């Protein structure tokens, strides 16, 4: 994405936040009735998707799971282990999982502004596999361990992730069409300098945080008809620093998603969603000892374009308790360099209003 598009993506939500005339006055009764719909919140896999009325305090938990596996890909093309070895690697990732737990704290000091705080915890696990030997290539190794062709080794890391905080600003609160703009800041509370037992840095994707201060502006529309609901959101994750203390920074990420929902009862709704993501490759390079033996060790093998399709359900257990569930599969992946493709993602959410 060029600088002009980046500037536009970053400036649009901020400009919208600065225009009070955009706000639509509606009664508290209308807001309350709309908020009681099971699809008043977006699917479980969405964030910054809803706002609150004055005085509301919400505590929520969200768990996100992603699994990766199958043949490594170059762009959209699957590769054999021999082809990965021919590209100069002696080890590849055969499968990976990522789990993230997030605490959502939301408070609305007035009907216009909703404040958010989102600390997180992460766990990543990866299985590495030795590749067939190529003439003149070094022996397969990973983190100081030698791997024979076809031999596997699993490793994992876990710990505190980055912490987000910011605000969502209501622009319209009409039940038929609401809109809000958001600006979240990501503080680098997660580790970005984890190392293997031999002192070398772990794969970039195994770090618990970005190590940089990041900005995440967004703009969200939400509509509610008598029989159906819908929503759409665009967001841009901008890395606000050139590099972290380990010498690199993750790529910027643009995302757009749209969903449709159907209330089945007064307490249950079903949803379907499409999500588009485009992420840049890693910039910079580890500033200490690290391996180049596997694709996850090289910064050009990160980012790309992905489209996911999901199905979900929202349930109101009581007036103050909501549950959400969503499962998604990738329908298109065009990955930078050589990477392990995503196979599945799932999200579970629960929230309590005070």
Write structural notes for this entry:
- The two termini are 41 Å apart.
- The protein is mostly beta strands.
- A hairpin with a 2-residue loop joins strand 10 and strand 11.
- It is built from three helices and 20 strands.
- The chain is elongated.
- Helix content is 8%, strand content 52%.
- The protein has a twelve-stranded antiparallel beta barrel with strand order 1-4-5-10-11-12-13-15-16-18-19-20.
- It has one domain: monomeric porin ompg (Porin, Beta Barrel).
Categorize the overall geometry.
Answer: elongated
Mean pLDDT across the residues is 89
In DSSP terms (H or I, runs of 4 or more residues), the helix count works out at 3
* Largest beta-sheet details: 12 strands, antiparallel, barrel
Structural class: mainly beta
Q: What is the string of helix and strand elements?
A: HHEEEHEEEEEEEEEEEEEEEEE
CATH topology: Porin
For the secondary structure, the number of strands is: 20
Rounded radius of gyration (Å):
22 Å
**Whole-number count of domains:** 1
Strand content: over 45%
What top-tier CATH class fits best?
Mainly Beta
Uncertain spans: 1-27
Q: What would CATH call the homologous superfamily?
A: monomeric porin ompg
> Percentage of helical residues?
under 10%
Task: List the defining traits of the structure above.
354 residues; mainly beta; Porin; two-stranded antiparallel ribbon; 8% helix; elongated
Q: What topology emerges from the helices and strands here?
A:
Elements: H1 3-17, H2 28-35, E1 57-69, E2 73-75, E3 77-78, H3 81-86, E4 91-107, E5 113-118, E6 120-130, E7 141-142, E8 145-146, E9 152-160, E10 163-174, E11 177-187, E12 214-224, E13 229-239, E14 248-249, E15 253-263, E16 268-279, E17 283-284, E18 304-318, E19 321-339, E20 342-353
Antiparallel strand pairs: 1-4, 1-20, 2-3, 2-19, 4-5, 4-6, 5-10, 6-9, 7-8, 10-11, 11-12, 12-13, 13-15, 14-17, 15-16, 16-18, 18-19, 19-20
